[in-house]
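Feature request, filed as a ticket because there's no other form

It would be nice if the structure record came with a short human-readable summary line next to the tokens. Right now we just get the raw output. Example of a typical job, pasted below so the devs can see what we mean:
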Amino acid sequence: MVRFAGDETRESLRPSGRTPEGRGPDRYFAWAHTVDLPLEVDPRGLGGMDEPFDGVVEIWWDSIETLLEAAMTPEGGKAHMDLVEDEKNFIDFSRSAMWFVEEEVFIGDG
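Raw output as currently delivered:
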């Protein structure tokens, strides 16, 4: 989950078109932008939630093993550093969050 840095806005980064060269063999790369809905009560304000994030970046791999294999190569390390350098231009890392997950699908084709 990311929060933008500086003067960046959802509109200034849409369409993103920011996929760096040499990304590697990840299976899926998406950037989900948050939207404002015209609701009577904003559910984000319930229960003391943090301020809204600006979006979510998803990078999917076929398995943890393929992620680790790619990350351990010189090319994978360079692709990661190139991505971080690019993201510094528009993501406020100090106010963003990152984690790794393994998805478990209960309904759908998953």
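Something like this underneath would help us a lot:
The first strand starts at residue 28 and ends at 33.
The domain at 1-37+48-100 is CATH 3.30.70 (Alpha-Beta Plaits).
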